[in-house]
Amino acid sequence: MTSEREGRQPFLVLAGVSRHFGATRALDGADLKIAPGEVHALVGENGAGKSTLIKLLSGLHQPGGGAIVIDGAATSIAGPLAAEALGFRFIHQELNLVPHFDTVGNAWIGRRHPHKGPFIDRAAMRARVAAVAARIAPDLPLDRPAARLTPGQRQMAEIVRALMTDARLVVMDEPTSSLSEAEAERLHAVVRQLAASGTAVLFISHRLDEVMALADGYTVLRGGRTVGAGRVKDIDRAGLVRLMSGGSALAEALPKAALRVASSRDVALSADIAFGPAGGRAMIEIGAGEIVGLYGLVGAGRSALLKALWGALPVTGSVRLAGRPLAGGPAGRIAMGAVYVPEDRRREGFAGALSIADNLALAHLADFRRAPRLPLPARGRIRAFARDVGARLRLVAASLERSPLTLSGGNQQKLLFGRWLGRPIRLALIDEPTRGVDVGAKAEIHDEIRRISASGAAVIAATSDIEELMALSDRVLVMNGGRIVADLSGAVLTREAVVAAAFGHAPRSHPHQPNQTAAVA
Amino acid sequence: MTLLRRYGTLLALALIIAVFAIASPGAFGTVANLVNITQQMSLLAIVAIGATLVMVVGEFDLSVSAVVSFAGIAAVSLFGVGYGIATVFVLVIVAALAMGTVSGFLVARFAVPSFIATLAFGTIIGGLTFWISDGATLFSGIPPAFRDLGRGAVFGLPVPTLWLIGTAVIVWLLLDATEFGRRLYAIGGNREAARLVGLPVRRDMIIAFALSAGLAALAGLLLAARLGSAHPTGGGGYLLSAYAAVFLGMTAFREGEPSVPGTLVGAAIIAVVSNGLTILGVPSFLQDLMTGAIILAAVLVRQFGRAGD
């Protein structure tokens, strides 16, 4: 051991760390080893535990089990200041710059400023930042507020801030996800430069080509556990995909959804649209009675696509339901028999100040008038509707007159489905049907989705939960970078194929079938 | 166009002064009147500078006018029981700092929205002030030397103007040239980032609220000195004008952030409009109408400027 170069000894070891949030195991025995000067990639699906692991390193969470070993000694990282003192620097995905501070001002936040007498010495501040920037980003504007920098420049400003004092480890969470090709190249050069100077870099990336090109070592997390680690030169992309998805053997072992015969399906929904600020494009055809799962990593554009179809985001192109164009925003869609279940039930789903019954009636207030032209709510009919819906969905509520905030997460989620019942549904747009919902309610919600589908509705269900995706979907569309990159059904619909497509990796075992792929290049 | 966007508020001030100077060269446009305006704006500006500190961290302090009233009543009451000028100054300011600390604590520690916390606490302070004063205007027992702190002139400048200059310079340096100031702006700009790099977010926010109340108390003391009396609602008019000055100031300089120079420009606009319209004999309701319209215009110009970026 002593003969080996100091540079190759891991200085940071996470040994079997775990962290639970309530009943959810975010980390459940994760291992990680990083050596000085190493570029290490941390990869895994949504919810594999990557963010939680980084929060342990930054001191924002404490491990519930296992140990963080630094330079051979078990260490507890009490908080952000302790992490800073250890030489750990973090570049979070949502950038943490003060928008109206320039690069110099941002670099000094939280540090002891140079002083001249009682006042801060702006010239010295600028000189120190300029010296750091000269090494890694000589053309970074130092005097421009962060709000007016490009995403790539902001990233550089964060790195400059990280390097103001000696850093042993720089952690980057998806550093290139919002960068252009040229900016990403630039960032890669900086990462290599950091590594060459002995600083370790740990980065999370969903771009496997980036991992292969940039990293020395890798660690794969799945379900909060480390399922693979080693040198990047000893593995290929397909190998990483296998580790992340749990391998093809698992995919076949999955219970398949209630098989429904998809005979001569009419096309219910057809859309060819451009949407959202990030320039998403999609061409979709969905049959009546079909459940289409929508998968993609965080930021792939699933929610934006559903919102666009719902008319809640600016959208160009055509959306037709049963041959008739959908227009007029959400109200127009509701009138044509479309329904929408948003991703974030508290923020987008219901009004906490209204009762459960009133929330259920909210989407069809005109149906609950005392008289057709008299906009006064008929309380009795609203209560009766709420009781019917509550019985059908087995809603567990102390009283339907209480706020939905008094309900459990599963029952809140049922409420979002319940408000659409009692009218024919022709299109259901569902964003995360069961996030944060217990197992029992999950099964009941899945049953409800199948009932909606069986009544002849076209269903699109976006989910981050791959188990749910496989259990619920007749067909799966995978999104990446705002586009649909794979359309999988039948024999090619495997967990492995879904994950590979989401990570932008076309598996060689499944040759492209042009008629199966609705990607708009 | 860029110039108008950047310095529109400053240009507006210059334009307003020019218009009044032409309309009323004999009365408005004299050096004596312009000096007088600096005196008329001084107390408002001191309160507004305090409000600026709280605005920098992204919060509101709606208790400032209650503190202004409280300070005057408390000071005259203390004179009445025989305390000296220096003692009264220290006691009143310390009491106000404590009040600001309570507001800041409610906001920073318990995440009570500052609108609600300071509205409620300001109401409490108002009740306390009525209790102390029995609802009456107090004027007996004020030492003549105390009155000199709010009137007269030194080196040709009115004393209140000198207080304003002193306050403005100190707070401006504090915000612009100290680490504390950088921290306040960082907290206001991105509180989560400030927390993640380990800044003492709560402590700094509490200090900002304390200083705001302290400056409101200073204005209250000077008001009592100038009038030679104190009324339990004497500070009532300062709250909205102070925030109007801060908002106007935010349209004046640097990225739309609150700043001391900006607040001074804002307070000057309000004072100049009021002074000029009074000299022209315009009724006071029209003055309010004008002031409100100017604030809206400044903010709208700023918004269009943003859209053009």
Task: Give the SSE layout.
The complex is a heterodimer of chains A (about 525) and B (about 300).
Chain A: E1 12-21, E2 24-34, E3 39-43, H1 50-57, E4 65-70, E5 73-74, H2 80-85, E6 88-91, H3 103-108, E7 115-116, E8 119-120, H4 122-136, H5 151-162, E9 169-173, H6 181-196, E10 200-204, H7 208-214, E11 217-222, E12 225-231, H8 237-245, H9 247-253, E13 267-275, E14 280-287, E15 291-296, H10 302-309, E16 315-321, E17 324-325, H11 329-335, E18 338-341, H12 345-349, H13 356-361, E19 369-371, E20 374-377, H14 379-393, H15 409-418, E21 427-431, H16 439-454, E22 458-462, H17 466-472, E23 475-480, E24 483-489, H18 495-502
Parallel strand pairs in A: 3-10, 3-11, 6-9, 9-10, 15-22, 15-23, 18-21, 21-22
Antiparallel strand pairs in A: 1-2, 1-4, 4-5, 7-8, 11-12, 13-14, 13-16, 16-17, 19-20, 23-24
Helix pairs in contact in A: 4-5, 8-18, 15-16
Chain B: H1 2-23, H2 31-56, H3 64-80, H4 85-110, H5 114-133, H6 144-147, E1 153-154, E2 157-158, H7 159-177, H8 179-189, H9 191-196, H10 201-227, H11 238-250, H12 260-279, H13 284-308
From the alpha carbons, calculate the radius of gyration of chain B and give it in angstroms. Answer: 19 Å
Q: How many DSSP E strands of chain B?
A: 2
Q: CATH first level of chain B: which class?
A: Mainly Alpha
What proportion of the residues of chain B form beta strands (DSSP E)? under 5%
**Domain count of chain B:** 1
Named CATH architecture of chain B: Orthogonal Bundle
Could you say what the CATH topology of chain B is called? Answer: ABC transporter involved in vitamin B12 uptake, BtuC
Shape of chain B: globular
Largest interface: A-B, 27 and 23 residues
Strand order of the largest sheet of chain B: 1-2
SSE succession of chain B: HHHHHHEEHHHHHHH
What would your notes on this structure say?
- The complex is a heterodimer of chains A (521) and B (309).
- In chain A, 32% of the residues lie in helices and 25% in strands.
- Chain A has 521 residues and is an alpha/beta fold.
- Chain A has 2 domains: 6-251, P-loop containing nucleotide triphosphate hydrolases (Rossmann fold), CATH 3.40.50; 253-516, P-loop containing nucleotide triphosphate hydrolases (Rossmann fold, 3-Layer(aba) Sandwich), CATH 3.40.50.
- The longest helix of chain A is centred in the middle third of the chain and has 16 residues, at 181-196.
- Chain A is globular, with a radius of gyration of 26 Å.
- By secondary structure, chain B is mainly alpha-helical.
- Chain B has one domain: ABC transporter involved in vitamin B12 uptake, BtuC (Orthogonal Bundle), CATH 1.10.3470.10.
- In chain B, 49% of the residues are buried.
